[in-house]
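Why do we bother with holo predictions? Because pocket geometry can differ from the apo form. Keep that in mind while you read this record for magnesium ion.
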Amino acid sequence: MSEQAEQAAREEAASRLFSGPVDFLLSAPQLKFLPEPIVPEIAFCGRSNVGKSSLLNALTGRKAIARASVTPGRTQELNFFDVGRPERIEGEDAGLPLFRLVDMPGYGFAKAPVKVVEKWKSLVKSYLRGRAVLARTLVLVDSRHGLKDTDREMMTMLDEAAVGYRIVLTKADKIKASDLQVVAEKTAAEAKKHVAAFPEIHLTSSEKGMGIAALRAAVVADALGEGWQG
Ligand SMILES: Nc1nc2c(ncn2[C@@H]2O[C@H](COP(=O)(O)OP(=O)(O)OP(=O)(O)O)[C@@H](O)[C@H]2O)c(=O)[nH]1
Ligand SMILES: [Mg+2]
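The structure, written out:
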């Protein structure tokens, strides 16, 4: 198979997986409420309002499974979503999902009370640092703004914790293609200096669907292994 055909097959398999069951599991306002760490997890992190919840909705092909809003600071807990829950057999416990997506509160939101932001930040950091089943983190960056110091701080923390992450530029529909290219190149150059960052930068628009199929395939490969085809 050509490389292109292989990529198309991966995207097709990932799309099939996400068109199956995707279910909200629970919302954890504190670490003690986290679910049992029994399947791989993919975490969505980034500044407030960057588009984490919208990206989760776009990847799963659901309009509003994760709550997105015009009000920054919408997501205030770690929200877990089960992907690929097997058929429930009568009289037996429900099987495990294949993996989980975790929508997180944003960091760097100036308008929320400092104490509240500190609480979210510490929750996010403790989760990212200590979660053994964390297969990959997506660090979302608004393509209009590029990397900010709060992103760099988060990236450095992930480097130190040896948590591999993909940088995802969001809201690509909001800027000119030429400007997007410039931001992507700058971001890639900075990513090179971070040991745990993937070299490839994902360009996405949850609104227009740009880059979603490829990111979906990457997320499935991160969670279930490169060879997974369903
Ligand atoms: N044009 C455009 N708007 C987007 C896109 N993604 C998200 N938005 C908008 O950006 C705003 C914030 O999106 P959310 O998904 O709630 O962002 P978030 O990162 O989850 O925000 P917090 O939970 O507050 O941290 C909403 O008004 C979305 O409709 C996109 O790809 N294109
Ligand atoms: Mg959100």
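The CA atoms of residues 49 and 197 lie 22 Å apart.
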